[in-house]
Amino acid sequence: MRQADLTECSFSSRFQYIIIQQEIESSDTMQNFVYRNTTKIIFGRNTIPQVGEECRKIGKRLLLLYGKGSVKRNGVYEQVVRSLDDAGLSRVELDGVKANPTLAHTHLGIELAKKENVDLVLAVGGGSVIDEAKAICAGACVDHDVWDFYMQKAAVVKALPLIDVLTMSATGTEMNGGTVITNEATGVKLGMGFDALYPRTSILDPETLYSIPPEQTAYGCIDATTHLLEGYFTGEDRSTPLQDRYAEGIIRTLVEIAGPMMDNPRDYSLRSTFMWGATLAWNGTAPSGIGNWSTPNHLIGHSMSSLYDTPHGASLSIALAAWMPWYAKSRPERLRQLGKAVFDIHEADPSRAATQTIDAFVRWFQSLGSPTTLKEIDADPDAFAENVALCAPLWGLPGYSKEFILELFRGSC
Q: For the chain, which residues score pLDDT lower than 50?
């Protein structure tokens, strides 16, 4: 894709789909904001059989979207289909959603939804399936390419209703209006978000997480943690103790439960804590009122995923390991506060405390088996840096040039 094709549109890095509006004032206090979340959450054991009735409230015919077959192996598909049949609903199915959902497969879903004249989309899977489902919901209601929404050339005004059964916690997409997909033809991974894309209902049964591989549990915890860290690190230096404690509390909890959860995958208490914590990490609550903030680690991570198909959580552990030392040069006190709250680091000197906090995060990533350097994913530093720099203006981060990224990751290659 030509540079001009990307820079001729404007994309806010603040993932505006999780907060409706923030009014920035020149003060050190919490900022004015408008918050709305329209998703109904049904949480707990044995909740999947409710999906048929939830769908029947909307329509009679649906597109059932899922991934590469795990929902059939773990019994979730059978529960869903039985509930749909009991509710008297007709359906058409599409499987094959990838871990990093692609535009080409999204086009297949849009064509199918239009051809079959479905009333709604039911996504059964993790964040990738739900993200692609949102794109299908938007694309099924327009004649132009759904990629135009991601390029900010058009706004989603109308979309098919979406219901989901979540089977992998991480992204928080089950309770926000955001979606991310990859245009595999150009190697660009972008997100968009609109009110019309909030799921109507999300069903969260922690027992669906019992069968996910250990590495996916690790990546999910890292992803949810990074969602909170983005606003925590990049938000303006204001007095927002409530938002700070909210983020610190969830992060500490995720750090504490990740290892035990990998060792005890069928522990309901751990799985339910993880599932709800990941949802709360990215439903718009944490950054409300903090003012301007950005998502540089997601920018960086998305380039890894688009180029090397790196799992999202793995890309974020690599990004944070390189980005945090740079951040510590300007705001060591912020890292000192985080280290004290999450890792019980009581070093008084901000610079030393910041280093200890970064080391603690890196050790945590490594203990979970997640990579922390580019060389672990065999990345080409030049190609990677070029991709980040190409996408950076769309994220409102024009300072993330190729030269800056190469310097940032100099010790990671």
A: 1-17, 19-20
